[in-house]
Amino acid sequence: MFDGVVRTLSDVRYVPELKRNLILLSTLDSKGYRYTAESGVLKISEGSLVVMKGQRKTAKLYVLRGSTVTGDAAVASSSLSDDDITKLWHMRLGHMSENGMVELSKRGLLDGQGICKLNFCEHCVFGKQKRVRFTRGIHNMKETLEYIHSDLWGPSRVPSRGGANYMLTFIDDFSRKVWAFFLKQKSDVFSAFKSWKIMIEKQTGKQIKYLRTDNGLEFCSDEFNRLCKSEGIVRHLTVRHTPQQNGVAERMNRMIMEKVRCMLSNANLPKSFWAEAAFTACFLINRSPSVAIEKKTPQEVWSGNPANYSDLKIFGCPAYAHVKNGKLEPRSIKCVFLGYKAGVKGYKLWCPENRKVVISRDVEHQINTESTPQVSTKIENRVASSPQYSIAKNRTKREIKPPKKYAEADLVAYALNVAEDIDANQEPSNYSEAISCEDSEKWMFAMQEEMESLHKNKTWDLVKLPKGKKTVRCKWVFKKKEGTPGVEEPKYKARLVAKGYRQVPGVDFTDVFSPVVKHSSIRALLGIVAMHDLELEQLDIKTAFLHGELEEDIYMQQPEGFRVSEKEDYVCLLKKSLYGLKQSPRQWYKRFDSFMTSHDFKRSSFDNCVYFKKNNDGSFVYLLLYVDDMLIAAKDKGEIRKVKAQLSEEFEMKDLGPAKKILGMEILRDRKTSKFDLSQKGYIEKLLCRFNTRSAKPFGRTEDGVIGYVDADFAGDLDRRRSLTGYVFTIGGCAISWKATLQTTVALSTTEAEYMAITEACKEAIWLKGLFSELNEDLQISTVFCDSQSAIFLTKDQMFHERTKHIDVRYHFVRDIIARGDIVVSKISTHENPADMMTKSLPITKFEHCLDLVGVHC
Known about the structure:
Blueprint: H1 25-30, E1 34-38, E2 41-46, E3 49-56, E4 62-64, H2 72-76, H3 82-92, H4 98-106, H5 122-128, E5 147-153, E6 166-172, E7 178-183, H6 189-204, E8 210-213, H7 222-231, E9 234-237, H8 247-267, H9 274-285, H10 298-303, E10 318-322, E11 332-340, E12 347-351, E13 356-360, E14 363-365, H11 407-424, H12 431-436, H13 440-456, E15 460-463, E16 471-472, E17 474-481, E18 491-498, H14 519-532, E19 535-541, E20 549-556, E21 571-576, H15 584-597, E22 602-603, E23 610-614, E24 620-626, E25 629-634, H16 637-650, E26 653-658, E27 661-662, E28 665-670, E29 675-679, H17 681-690, E30 706-712, E31 724-731, E32 734-742, H18 750-775, E33 781-786, H19 789-796, H20 801-804, H21 813-820, E34 824-827, H22 844-853
Parallel strand pairs: 5-8, 8-9, 16-20, 30-33, 33-34
Antiparallel strand pairs: 1-2, 2-3, 3-4, 5-6, 6-7, 10-11, 10-14, 11-12, 12-13, 15-21, 17-18, 19-25, 19-26, 20-21, 22-23, 23-24, 24-25, 27-28, 28-29, 30-31, 31-32
Helix pairs in contact: 8-9, 14-18, 18-19
Keywords: Aspartyl protease, Hydrolase, Metal-binding, Protease
InterPro entries: DNA/RNA_pol_sf, GAG-pre-integrase_dom, Integrase_cat-core, PolX-like_BBD, Retrotran_Ty1/copia-like, RNaseH-like_sf, RNaseH_sf, RVT_2
Pfam families: gag_pre-integrs, Pol_BBD, rve, RVT_2, SH3_retrovirus
C-alpha cells in the first residue's frame, strides 16, 4: 500500500480476463471500513488508521496508490518488517513516543515484537510540534555603542511619584551597561531616545550603529524611522509576538523589576516609589558582575575603571540630612534613602515630614539592617512636588479607543492594505529570494548580464586582502521595470551594489557631491521641444557608474553566487567606481562632463547637468543628464545620430529611440496634431489604489510664453503663526516649476506675507530666466502675476515705511530687480490665479479650475 504495508483482501472474485482490479466501496462499507474524499484523494480508514489511498483520475475513478501482489508473493510478503511493526504499534498506541514503546516492548507487552527506530510521522508533527528553541544571538561587538538593545516596560498600575507610567531602557551590548528613563506616555519614547543619543554620543565620541527593538509603534513611528535613517542607524526589529528575539532588553527589564520588588519589600515603601527603586537597581546592575562580559562589571567595561563600592547604602534605610535651622532647632531631619542622583555628588532622599524629594551630601545613614522605616501608605496617592523627570512632562490623558464593533472592519482594512503592498512588491530583496522565486530564470539572466558588463569593463582585480585593510561588502539589488502595455515587455534588472556605508571618510573617499538635473530643467526642455517641434530621443548608459575611475584603493568581497572557485578567500580590488560607493556618482559625472566639454558642448551655468551646442545654422542641440538617463533634442534626427555615435564610442549605450518615459513621467506625443503631453498615470493609479480613490476628470488649456503666478496666505501655520508661500511657472500653458513652503519669518499682515512671497517667486524667475537665456535667447520671462495690489505697490516704491521697516533686508532685493526691468509684477484676479491652490484648501470646482489654468490633468 501507500505506506509500505501489505494488506490481504479476502472473499474476492477472480476474473482472469479482467485487465484491472476493481474494489467496490459498498463492499468495504459492509465490512466496517469508512471512506472520505477530499481534494481529489480518496481515503479508506479502519477506525483512525488510513489503510488505502486513491488518486482521482478520468471517468471519476480513483486509482489505488500501491501495487498488487498475488500467489506465493503475497504469502512471502505477509510478514511485516520491523519498521512497519513499529509504525503500526505507534498508531495503535495513540502516537506514543519511541521511548515509551521501547519500554513496553522490554516488558513483553507488545506480543513479543521488537521496536526499532521510529521514522518520521507527519501526524505527530501536526499534533505535537513545539516552537523552535531560541538560540542565543552572538553579536561579536568590538566597542561600546556599536549595538544597542532597547525596550519599553509598562504601563504600571501605580504611577510613580513623578507621574511616570513607563520605563524605557537602553542596554549597550558590548559593556551591558543599562540606562533607564521614566515616561508618562509612550509617545515620549522618541524624545527620550533623541536626548539620550545626543548625550551619550557627545560624551563618548562614538556613534550608535545598530538598534534592536520590538515592533511597537513607539519605536516604529515616522519620526523615529527618519532619525535612524538620517543618522545611519541600522534597525533590527523583532518578529511580532516574539519577545525572545529581544532577549537582552527583556531579560534586563525582568532583572530590574525583580530588584524593584525586593527593594520595595525590604524598605516597606509603597509601590509609588517604583521609579526610584528602578533607577537605583540600574545603578547597582551597572556595578554587578555579568556572565556575558566574563564576570566583569558593566561600569568597568564601559569606563575602563573599577567601580567604587564604599558609598553604597541600603535602599530605603533611615538617613539623616543636615538642615540649616535656628540655633535651638535640630540640625538634621530624618529621611528615607532612595538612591543616587545622576550627575550630582549627593544622595536622593525622601522626606516624609515635608513629603518631597531632597538631594543632600551631608547625610548620616543608619546602618542597622534589621530596622526598616515605617512609611504611611497614605502617601501612595500623593504626587511629590519636586519635578524629578524632565522627560515625563505631559499630563496623562485618557486613552480614547474606538468602539469594538469597528475592530473587525479595521482589521480587514489593514489586511487588505498589507495584501496590496505584498502583491505590488514582486521584486526579490536578496539573492536567495531571486533564485527561488517564479521568475528565477529571468533574475539569474539579469545577474549574469550584470556580471558580464562588470568583467567587460574590468571593474576589479581579484587579489589577496592586504594586512590592515578592511573590505566593503556588497549585495544584489533587483528591479522590475514595467514596460508600456502592448508595446514592450517588463524588464528585469539586477545591479551589484557595494555597501558604501562601511567606507571611512578621508580614507576610502573625500568628495562625494554630484549634481543631478533639476526637474524644472527637464520640464523647461520639454516645453521648448513642444514649442519648436524638435526631435526628442532618449538614451540609457549601461552601468554608468562603472565608467568612473576610482582614486582610492577599495577592497570588496566577491558577489554572492559568483565567487570564483579555488579563490574564495580572494577579494575584489576595485578599479572602477561601483554603485553604492560614496564617490561613485561624482566620479561618473566627472568622466561624463569631461567627455561632453571636449566635444564642443557647453555646460549650463544654471544647471550643471544641462548641455547645449549651437550649430552653424543657428539651431541648438540639447542634452539633459539624469544619472544614467539622458534626453537629446535637436532640429533633425541627423544631429541626434551624430551625438549618439560620439557617445557610443566612449560609453556602452542603449538607444531607446523616441523619448517615452523619464523619471516616472510618460511622454506622449502626437506629431500630426502637434500635441505633446506628460503623464504620470501609473504613479497616480498607484496613489489612487493606495488611498482607495478612483476618480479622474480631464481639464486643460494652452498658453504661450513663460508666466509666473504667486500667492500667500496669512498665518496659516497655527502652531508657529507663519504664512505659506506658493508659486507656479508655466510654459505653453503647462506647469514647469512650482513650490509651496512656509515662510521663515512671521508676517504681521497679509500685505507683508504677499510681499515676501513675491520675493521668493522672483528668485525662481531669475533662475529660470538665466536657464532659458542659455537654451533659447528668444524665450524670456517678463511677468509674475500676483493678486495683492498692496504687495505690488510695495515692490515698486518705499511707501508704508513705518509698516514695513522691520521686514528682513533680503526680501527687499526684489525692488532692485523690478526697478531694472528684469521682472514685471502685475495684478491678476484671485479667481484666475492658479497659485491659490498652493496656499489653501479650495472647493473642488475652484481646485479643478486652478489645475486647468496650469494644464494639469487629473
